[in-house]
Structure formats: C-alpha cells, structure tokens
Amino acid sequence: MSLPLDARQETYMRGVKSTTSKKKHTYAILLMAWVFLIALGVWGTKAYSDHLRGQIAEQIAVQNKTQLEAIQQDYQTQIGDLKAAFQTEIAQLQTKVDSLNELLAFTRDSANSKTDNSNQLYTQLAEVKKQLEELQHNLDVLK
Fold first, then answer.
1. pLDDT in tens, 86-139
2. Under a CB-based contact definition with an 8 Å cutoff, are residues 72 and 81 in contact?
3. Whether 11 contacts 3, CB under 8 Å
4. Residue 17 Cα to chain centre, angstroms
C-alpha cells in the first residue's frame, strides 16, 4: 500500500495547507477574542468611572446643600441678633429723646420774661430753696 511518490507529496501538501489554514483561523479567532476582551474592559472602565462620577457628584451636592443650609441658618441667627440689638438701642435712644423733649417742654413752659432761658433752671431751684426756707421759718415760729 504504498503510494506513489507524487501521491505522498500531494497528501503531505494537503495536510500542510489544512494545518496552516487551521492555525490562521485559530489566530484570527484568538485575535478577535482578544480585541473583544479589550473593548469589553474599556467599556467596563468607562461605565464604572461614569458611575463613580455620578456618586461623587451626588455626594458633593448633598454636602453643598447641608453647608448652605447651615450658612443660611447662621445668617438668619445673626440677622435676628442684630435686629434685636438695634431695637434695644433704638428703645434706649427713644427714652433719651423723650426725656430730652420733656426737659425742653419744661423749660419752654416755665420760661417767662423775668428769667433768662439759659439760667432758668437755676433760678427755679433758687426760688424753691427760698420757699423751703420760708416754710422752715414758719414751722419754727409755730413751735
């Protein structure tokens, strides 16, 4: 069963071709699988980074919101304190203005042609003192 030499060579050549074509086919499949795995890794990395970016953005938004609320609360507290302080100062100034108005009204009412306006209070005190001395003298006389 020996084949002629040409037949053997032809059989050998067919075997070489099929082995070479199988190797090329296997390399092509491996290359395509490798490219697919790389593409899948790139896509997975991109999807994961987008997911992390979204989480970080949410966390920053929450932190900003809480910080802004704290700042707003502090601002409202400071405004309330300032408002209370100003109201207290205004009330004190109002009492001073009222007492000054009473003093001015007193001096205006008691001003007459006999006394000088700048010296009127001193004059009135002197008159009160004089009347007090007269009353004291009358009390001594009655004793």
1. 899 998 989 888 888 888 877 777 665 555 555 667 777 778 888 888 878 777
2. no
3. yes
4. 77
Q: Which residue is listed with tokens 């008159």?
A: 127
Taking every pair of Cα atoms in the chain, the longest distance, rounded to a whole number of angstroms, is 179
CA 16/CA 10 separation, integer angstroms: 10
What is the rounded CA–CA span in Å between residue 73 and residue 82?
Answer: 14
Helix, strand, or coil (residue 62)? helix
Q: Please give the distance of CA 29 from its chain centroid, rounded to a whole number.
A: 59
pTM for the predicted model, two decimal places: 0.45
Within its chain, how far is the Cα of 84 from the centroid?
A: 23
Distance of CA 12 to the CA centre of its chain: 84
Q: Which amino acid makes up residue 72? A: Q
Q: Please give the Cα distance from 110 to 104 (Å, whole number).
A: 10
Helix (H) or strand (E) holding 16: helix 5-109
DSSP E strand stretches across the chain = none
